[in-house]
């Protein structure tokens, strides 16, 4: 599998996972993001690569930062290449997200 295809598939999986976690149907995601349902379907099936603008709209509707989608789309090799500063930043952000999720459960 080509690297670009793998990256598109990883973004697709990240979007699907977050959307499923939020119990949000594709149709609702498309409507709230003001994107066509067929475009969302293509994204989630890895047949279309999202623009940064579309990814930001999707992230906003899903209630996550675009950073989380990109992080979830990253391979282990890509994450190993992070600087110590970037790693510390991600740890802090992930911790904040976990705390937020825990508060939402209560």
Task: Please provide a written account of the structure.
The chain is mostly helical and 106 residues long. The protein has one domain (3-105): lambda repressor-like DNA-binding domains (434 Repressor (Amino-terminal Domain), Orthogonal Bundle), CATH 1.10.260.40. It has helices spanning 3-21, 26-33, 37-44, 52-62, 66-73, 76-80, 84-105. α1 (3-21) packs across α5, α2 packs across α3 (37-44) and α2 packs across α4. The longest helix has 22 residues, at 84-105. The radius of gyration is 14 Å and the shape is globular. The mean pLDDT is 86.
> What is the number of independent domains?
1
CA-atom Rg in angstroms: 14 Å
The overall pLDDT average reads 86
CATH homology-level superfamily: lambda repressor-like DNA-binding domains
Number of strands: 0
Strand count, sense and closure of the main sheet? none
The amount of beta strand, in percent, is under 5%
Number of helices: 7
């Amino acid at each position: 599998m080509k690297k670009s295809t793998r990256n598109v598939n990883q973004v697709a999986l990240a979007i699907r996972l977050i959307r499923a976690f939020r119990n949000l149907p594709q149709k609702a995601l498309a409507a709230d993001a003001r994107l066509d349902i067929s475009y969302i379907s293509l994204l989630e099936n890895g047949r279309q690569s999202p623009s940064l603008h579309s990814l930001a709209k999707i992230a906003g509707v899903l209630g996550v930062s675009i950073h989380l989608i990109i992080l979830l789309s990253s391979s282990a090799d890509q994450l190993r290449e992070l600087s110590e500063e970037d790693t510390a930043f991600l740890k802090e952000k992930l911790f904040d997200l976990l705390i937020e999720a825990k508060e939402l459960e209560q």
